[in-house]
Write a structure and sequence with these properties.
By secondary structure, the chain is an alpha/beta fold. It has a single domain, classed as Glycosidases (TIM Barrel, Alpha-Beta Barrel), CATH 3.20.20.80. It is 40% helix and 20% strand. It contains 13 helices and 14 strands. The strands form 3 sheets. Strands 3-4-5-6-7-8-10-11 form an 8-stranded parallel beta barrel, surrounded by 6 helices. A 3-stranded antiparallel β-sheet has the order 1-2-14. β10, α12 and β11 form a beta-alpha-beta unit. α8 packs antiparallel against α9, α8 packs across α10 and α11 runs parallel beside α12. The model has no long low-confidence stretch (mean pLDDT 97). It binds beta-D-glucopyranose (BGC). Beta-D-glucopyranose binds next to loops.
């Protein structure tokens, strides 16, 4: 799988490896006024930097987005369905919205791109949030009904299905850090309860997808981090890992894959979370610069679940695009090392195709391979897009 010379090394990835990039409905479509995030953005006193507004206008410009993916020679595009557009009121389904997403899937397939469809990426319809969101006992059933309807419409156009994006981040941010709706801080009981509802919603959604027409792999995507503890921090690490990762990893039995999403490493000492030592390189998100989280989390997810892994998100926020190339190079080298050790990793999906609405941070973070002008919506591929395209087209990376 690799060929060494004194100057450099060529890392070759397996045939059929998925090379993708990802987006999410609320971060790019614009005008998603009927979900809980939009409401949160316009609520007094939250920490949201600015409203999502028109985002990247991808509701109208999705074809341009797909062309950008195709131009890079990628074979996978991960995007999400906006539940609030598909089911704007309980039980009322929009055929127009379903047709819209079907057209995206069909066009992607025509371009040789596998549509990786996420059914819930952080945003919920207002009507669901008003009834308690992931604290409402009926949510798993409601989600399964929406998933069933969408899956019935999209059928085999779906290439791979992700039920819920990072359920652990929705609950941690929503009930512990107060940075996502419903904006609650430090309520560990509600956090734990919402985690259980998330798990039930995932399981019910898997059943719905399996019962629907179409055959494609189905899984959950989880936010994971590489974690280290200094002396005395082991217990804190174990407790955090249990509530953020393991409770979900244990709930993936019978799924077809586990989606791993990682950006950094977290440190623990005898007091709990520990800031990395002074002088440690960090990113504008405040994360430790640790691209090696890819290999580390993929190994752990594979070991705990026994499932094939797809790295459904990894990337870096930076305004210095050369740093993105540096980060992705190191991340892929770490993936390659795990592959060489026999870890079953099926693909790498880079976050993100576009500079987009980064939730509470607004538009000040730049995760995109492609810049998006805030007023004209003009898309401009960056040097990192050219770099990533060359890796994906060759199926190999020179380090
Ligand atoms: C989320 C994305 C987000 C990215 C970068 C992930 O947690 O799925 O929606 O933009 O990280 O912060």
């Amino acid at each position: 799988m690799s060929e060494t010379s004194s100057a450099s090394q060529l890392l070759t990835f397996p045939t059929g490896f998925l090379w993708g990039t990802a987006t999410a409905s609320h971060q790019i479509e614009g005008g998603n006024w009927n979900n809980d995030w939009w409401a949160f953005e316009h609520q007094e006193g939250t920490i949201v930097a600015e409203p999502s507004g028109d985002a990247c206008d991808s509701w109208n410009r999705w074809r341009e987005d797909l062309d950008l993916v195709a131009d890079m020679g990628l074979n996978a595009y991960r995007f999400s369905l906006e539940w609030s557009r598909i089911e704007p009121e309980p039980g009322l389904f929009s055929m127009a919205a379903l047709d819209h997403y079907k057209e995206i899937c069909v066009t992607a397939r025509d371009l040789g791109i596998l549509p990786v469809v996420t059914f819930h990426h952080f945003s919920s319809p207002r009507w669901l949030a008003e009834r308690g969101g992931f604290e409402w006992s009926e949510t798993p059933e409601r989600m399964a009904a929406y998933v069933a309807k969408a899956a019935e419409h999209l059928g085999d156009e779906i290439g791979m299905a992700c039920t819920i994006n990072e359920p652990n981040i929705v609950t941690m941010m929503g009930y512990v850090l107060g940075a996502f709706p419903p904006g609650v801080s430090l309520d560990l009981d509600r956090f734990a309860a919402a985690n259980q509802t998330m798990i039930a919603a995932h399981r019910r959604s898997v059943e719905a997808l399996r019962a629907a027409p179409g055959t494609y792999p189905v899984g959950l995507t989880l936010s994971m981090a590489d974690m280290v503890a200094s002396e005395g921090g082991e217990q804190h690490l174990a407790e955090f890992r249990e509530s953020m990762e393991d409770v979900f990893l244990r709930a993936t039995g019978g799924d077809d894959f586990i989606g791993v999403q990682c950006y950094t490493r977290m440190s623990f000492d005898e007091n709990g979370f520990a800031a990395p030592p002074k002088g440690t390189r960090s990113t504008p998100m405040g994360y430790e610069w640790w691209p090696e989280c890819t290999g580390a989390t993929a190994r752990r997810a594979a070991e705990l679940t026994g499932l094939p892994v797809v790295l459904t998100e990894n990337g870096v926020s930076t305004t210095d695009d050369k740093e993105r190339i540096e980060y992705v190079t190191a991340a892929l080298a770490s993936v390659h090392e795990a592959l060489r050790d026999g870890v079953d990793i099926r693909g790498y999906v880079l976050w993100s195709l576009l500079d987009n609405f980064e939730w509470a941070f607004g538009y000040e973070q730049h995760f995109g391979l492609v810049a998006c002008d805030r007023t004209t919506f003009a898309r401009t591929p960056k040097g990192s897009a050219e770099f990533y395209a060359s890796v994906a087209k060759a199926g190999s990376l020179r380090i």
